[in-house]
Design a protein that fits this description.
There is one protein chain. The protein has about 150 residues and is an alpha/beta fold. The chain contains three helices and ten strands; from the N terminus they run E-H-H-E-H-E-E-E-E-E-E-E-E. The chain has helices at about 15-25, 25-35, 45-50, and strands spanning about 5-10, 40, 55, 65, 100-105, 110-115, 115-125, 130-135, 135-140, 145.
Length: about 150
Amino acid sequence: MLGQDIVLVTGGNTANALAIWRVHSFDRELREAWERGVVLTGWSAGMICWFEHGVTDSLWSRARVDGVSRISARQRLPALTTARSAAGRCYNSSSVAGLPAGLAADDGVALHFVGTELHEVVTSRPGATAYRVGPAGERPLTARLLG
């Protein structure tokens, strides 16, 4: 794992993936890879799993999951599971207690972190972006359109 440049995880069942990774200590290997600068990427479950905490609908109802990185509280991704519009925007779910404000992203949007700091938001879709979300609502972030 440590010799890889990038690790890509596709969508699926966040809770099951994380549980299997933990049984085999793969989560620790992934965390070490992240700490050494390996790019961790994915979509849906494959995005939620990289954050310290998130929300999944992989269980019977929305539930909190603990991911593999140590991205700080203000950079957590609380939810990417509840579609809010036809464009596929997802948002913070207040139904899961104990999660702080964090980030959400439209489909086709990538959050680029350097260490634990959000460095840039990029998108492949015109008009798509990411948001800082919390109890008071959401604030759109500027996204650079990739051409």
